[in-house]
């Protein structure tokens, strides 16, 4: 099933989207220290993940869609591509619970520019900022898993639990995307 032109609904996950497989591209991340670099956020501030104290959760996604604007050609056939809005909404809906479980900071992260990200942050009423790695500085420094489509380098979906600037836990691959926040919550509950 594909959406009719101009009828894209980024809130809905179509049936039978392909499940991403673990390609091993994130295995090196656990235990890595975040590089000393700042990323622009939709909240207006530059955020340096390596300098944040306490526990930070960063969920990573390829790109958000805009209601009524068609997805990229073949988007629904790329394993793990579809579902950025449901993933963001799940973190929004679990925000209070994440805070109660000791998460000091929560961010989304994509390679889209901040102006594009701001549309989604506003439309989805996100109580946290989305960070832009448009120049791929963090992506290259950490060797984050990516894919290329329509001439764009996009991040593969994952979530990182960072403690005092060091990656403690990596969720990769993430599927279904709308269950990612609940998966992080369950891990936080079990890890004390």
Overall description:
- Helix content is 22%, strand content 21%.
- It is built from five helices and nine strands, in the order βββααβαβαββββα.
- A five-stranded mixed beta sheet has the order 5-4-3-8-9. It has a two-stranded antiparallel sheet with strand order 1-2.
- It is globular.
- The N and C termini lie far apart (42 Å).
- The mean pLDDT is 92.
> Rg, please?
16 Å
Total helical segments: 5
What is the chain-wise order of helices and strands? EEEHHEHEHEEEEH
Structural class of the helix and strand makeup? Answer: alpha/beta
How would a textbook summarize the main sheet? 5 strands, mixed
Unreliable parts: none
Percentage of residues in strands: 15-25%
Q: What gross morphology would you assign?
A: globular
Measured between the Cα atoms of the first and last residue, the distance is: 42 Å
Mean pLDDT: 92
Strand neighbour order, sheet with most strands: 5-4-3-8-9
Oligomer: single chain
Q: How many DSSP-defined strands?
A: 9
Give the topology, please.
Elements: E1 39-40, E2 46-47, E3 55-60, H1 84-93, H2 95-100, E4 103-110, H3 114-123, E5 130-132, H4 137-142, E6 146-149, E7 152-155, E8 158-163, E9 166-171, H5 180-190
What descriptors fit this protein?
single chain, 192 residues, alpha/beta, five-stranded mixed beta sheet, two-stranded antiparallel ribbon, 5 helices, 9 strands
